[in-house]
Amino acid sequence: MSPPVSAGHLSTLRNIGRAVFTVAPFMLHHLWRRRRIDESTQTVDRLREPPPTRTGDQAAGDQAGGGSEVQTAADGVGPMVMRSYEVRITGAALGPAAVMRVLLERPGELNDDRIAAFVRDDRPATDLRVGDELVVELPGPWNGPVRVVRADDDELLLQTLDGHMEAGHIRFDTTDHVERPGGGHDFTFRIRSWARGGDRAFTVLHLGLRIAKELQTAMWVAMCEGAVRVSGGARSGRIGVLTDVLAESSVGAAPSSGTRSPPRQSIGST
User: Fold this and answer.
1) How confident is the model at residue 250 (pLDDT cuts 50, 70, 90)?
2) How many domains does the chain have?
3) pLDDT tens digits, residue range 59-71?
4) DSSP for 160-179?
5) Residue 194 domain-assigned (yes or no)
6) By residue range, what is the domain housing residue 207?
7) pLDDT, tens only, 28-66
8) Within its chain, how far is the Cα of 142 from the centroid?
9) Looking at residue 9, what DSSP letter applies?
10) CA of 47: how far to CAs of 81, 125, 194, 252, 261, in Å?
11) Of 88, 103, 129, 225, which has the fewest Cβ atoms less than 10 A away?
C-alpha cells in the first residue's frame, strides 16, 4: 500500500507565509465581502439533504486510494452539521459541466491561494480522478487530507481522511441550469459538506468559538466567487451560506450551536 497523502515538505513554510503575509488582507477582504452574503444557522430535526451514502464509486475510490485511513462522520465528534454555500451565476460563457471540468482539472483556478491550496507532494493537485488523494492546505493546524470518491461533469465528492479537521464529505456541484436561447448559461454553483468535527478541539473552535467556521466560510465563499469568475458570468443575488445542525446527533461531548427554526427552501436567492 502506498504511504498516506502528504502536502509535501514545504507545506509548513507555505502556511507560515500565508499566516504572516496573506491571511490578514484576505480576511479584511472577506469582511468587505460579507455585505453580499446571506448567512444563517439553525438547528433542525432533519437535514434538507441526507449525507452521501457509500456507493460503488466510493468503494472504487477506497480501492484505488493510497494508504490513508478514511475518516467518516461516525468517527467524528459533536453533532452532524451540513453547510451549504451557493451562488447563482447568470450569463455565463461556460456551462455548468465546463465549470466542473475546470474544477477537476485545475481546482486552483477557482481557489484563492491567499487562504488555501489544493496540493500533493508540494505540487498543485490537478486532473482529479476517483481514488486520488490530496490535501486542502490551510494556515495553522488545519491541513485537510481528502480522497476523491466521485469526479465527473456533475459533481466532485471528497471523503475526509485521517487527520482532517472534519469527519465526513464535501461536495461541489451545480444545479438549476437554464441555457439561454441566444447563448449563455444560468446556473447555481454549490459547495455542500456533511461532517462532524475531526476532534473535540476543532468542534469547540467551529461551534463554540466559531473561529474555524469563519475561516471555512471565507474560503468557500471565495471559491464560489472563483466559479463566477471562471464561468465568465455574473453573480445574481447574494451568496448563500446556510448551516444546519442536526438535533440529537452529537457523538462524544461537544458544544452545540444554532437556534431552532423552520427549514428554509433555498438560499442565496435574494
Assistant:
1) confident
2) 1
3) 555 555 555 689 8
4) EBTT-SEEEEEEEEEEEEEE
5) yes
6) 11-260
7) 999 999 999 999 999 999 999 999 986 555 555 555 555
8) 13
9) T
10) 9, 31, 10, 20, 13
11) 129
In order of 16, 48, 212, the CA distances from 65 in angstroms are: 29, 30, 28
What does the block give as the cell for 188?
Answer: 447555481
Is residue 70 within 8 Å of 198, Cβ to Cβ? no
DSSP codes of every residue in 79-145: EEEEEEEEEEEEEESS-HHHHHHHHHH-GGGTS-TTT-EEEETTEE--S--TT-EEEEE-TTTT-EE
Residue 203 lies in a domain: yes
Predicted structure pTM score: 0.86
Domain harbouring 65, CATH code: 3.30.530.20
Domain presence at residue 55: yes
Evaluate whether 173 touches 167 at the Cβ level (below 8 Å): no
Contact present, 244 and 47 (Cβ < 8 Å) = yes
Q: Is residue 173 part of a domain?
A: yes
C-alpha cell at 88: 447563482
